[in-house]
Design brief:
By secondary structure, the protein is of the alpha+beta class. Helices cover 27% and strands 31% of the residues.
Length: 136
Amino acid sequence: MDIDLLYDAMRVRQEVFVVEQDCAFLDLDGLDRECIHVMVREDGEIAAYARILPFEADGSRSIGRILTSGSFRGKGYGRILMEEALKAAGQGRIRIGAQVQAMGFYSSLGFKRTDAEEYLEDGIPHVKMILEESLK
């Protein structure tokens, strides 16, 4: 990823997670160098973004930092993003920490809730979800 694209990805992550969702957290967690970054762009701007973390010991992967930029919501970019992210992740189990309000969207992609308890991440209710077999 070149420096301009990296800057754009970091900017949109800050816009959505830190400013819009009012979550003060260290976004630059040292994992980005090892991740696969998936983006949907429109007219040079990042409309949607996610990162795929490296394989875990059990062969599963996690997709995180999933977002659709505010000005691009409602246009189907989230679904396009997730379909591309699932392809890029390859075969196997995929884990996500889903915001509760987005559970229906992730369920429509085949994700299932893994436990009954919600948890707070940066003050936002989340649930753990899993897709047993990602897209090829």
